[in-house]
Amino acid sequence: MRHLAYLAICSAMLVMNALGAESALARINAALEKDWKNQKLTPVPSSSDEVFLRRAWLDIAGRIPPVNEIKNFLADRDPDKRRKLIDRLLLSDGYADMMAMRYADMLRVKSEFPINLWPNAVQLYFRYLRDSAARNLPYNVMARALLTASGSNFRVPESNFFRATADRSPLGLAKVAALTFLNLRLEKMPENVQLDMAAFFSRIRYKSTAEWKEELVYTDPLPEHLTAATPDGMVFHINSPETDPRQVFADWLLQDRDLAFSKAFVNRAWYWVFGRGLIEPADDMAPPVCSNWWRKLSFCSGGGQFAEPVNPELLEILAAEFKNSNYDVRHLFRLIYNCASYQADWKTRPDEIAAATAHFAVYPARRLESELIIDLIGDLTGRREQYTSVIPEPFTIMPPTTRAIWISDGSISSTMLDSFGRPPRDSGLFSERNNRINGSQRLFLMNSSKIYSGLQNIYRNRLRKDKALRNPKKLIERCYLMTLSRPPTQQEIATVMAYADNNFSGSRQGQIAIDLLWALVNSKEFLYHH
Predict the structure, then answer these.
(1) Residues 6+ apart with CB under 8 A from 68
(2) Which helix (DSSP H) or strand (DSSP E) does residue 224 occupy?
(3) Quick one: CA torsion of 352, 357, 358, 359, rounded to 10 degrees?
(4) For the chain, how big is the Rg over CA atoms in Å?
(5) Which residues pair with 224 in a beta bridge?
(6) Mind listing the pLDDT tens digit for each residue in 136-164?
(7) Model-level pTM greater than 0.85?
(8) What CA dihedral angle connects 160, 161, 167 and 170, to 10 degrees?
């Protein structure tokens, strides 16, 4: 009976959560549609199932959907299939991998100069971040753990938050905390405000041990009375070490006054999904985030110009929902992935594309992250990049099956990763990652013998063995499904068939398949989120 009662309670809670999410989603979509109407934008239809399926798999799980998934999804007539797909992907290993990569960029997870976390600490820290994403650790719990951690960098992963910066002075640590949790560029504020906030981190000390590169993070045990102040002007008189100043700062931050803490993460999450924030730059948004208290002060960043949210009402709704959900990260992403902006097509009238993109009336097309491009090509060809590092010791060789998204250490890279703009993880700023396409990337993709030989292996080891693919049209369809996650149009089939007739005599299906795959991998449709 107890077991049945427990199941009944769980079922009731799930229903309540679902109803709450539906209500929040309705308010989010209403705020979006109100803004689009005010901008006089032409309504944009929802994306096709083919486009949405690929989009969701790439954004949430970092992969192209398998061919059988594509066929099943396109054949499914359930009107709720998109929501169910999002829920499933948010519980996948791929989601945890994507979030671990994002957290690692944000928190500067790197063993070498200028961060110098060192390999053992990097592995521990990255595993903590991935596990936090996988078990959906509430973001406020993570923030408090990072801000108040003490102990060995090899045994207490959160303690690496205070080590993962080139500047470990109190002011340097204050800048890191402000950027990470408030998207606040502390260096833009008056010197006295910076120093007042630095006082919260003035008692942090570091101590080496007998183990190679191990370091202890702790609060200075010597007594001191200090005065510290938060950026909104709240003054705290602290007796250390009876009271840890970091704990006082964490308490203030997680009171979430004016939803500043919530808005900062919401803007990060929105950026991760759409490639731009509701406020830009996405990690320099303090004035509007902390508007009520910031505007009381006699200064502001950017020479007096505030970067206003593109949709203030939407930011308020998302931030309030994030706080009310007890900082449930997966819940926040579920709302974003189900909202009208994410469901929308990426095309609209040419004369409206700039305004529609700025107001998220369309899904913004943009180049894939460097890790995803490399992993997608590796998934297709079965050939991975080789990742090694001779500095720092010990010499590191990653297993040949390693996906780029799994690389925990920002110091371990490859020529292709660097060429496609992987961030160095020196500052934690979004601007470190470069997702713009350039000529050298194009030349590499069009001339890489490694990629071409890998595409040859696709035909030899996979396509050739499937008797159904002896039909040229079926072969063309499979190539499109494997790369672009959609069937080809009749015009595309006709174009490929004409190419085959004009360039090959007799049966040359292998070469046709290789050339087609080569063209598809070099297409914008393959290389872009859209």
Answers:
(1) none
(2) strand 224-229
(3) 90
(4) 25
(5) 240
(6) 999 999 999 999 999 999 999 999 999 99
(7) yes
(8) -120
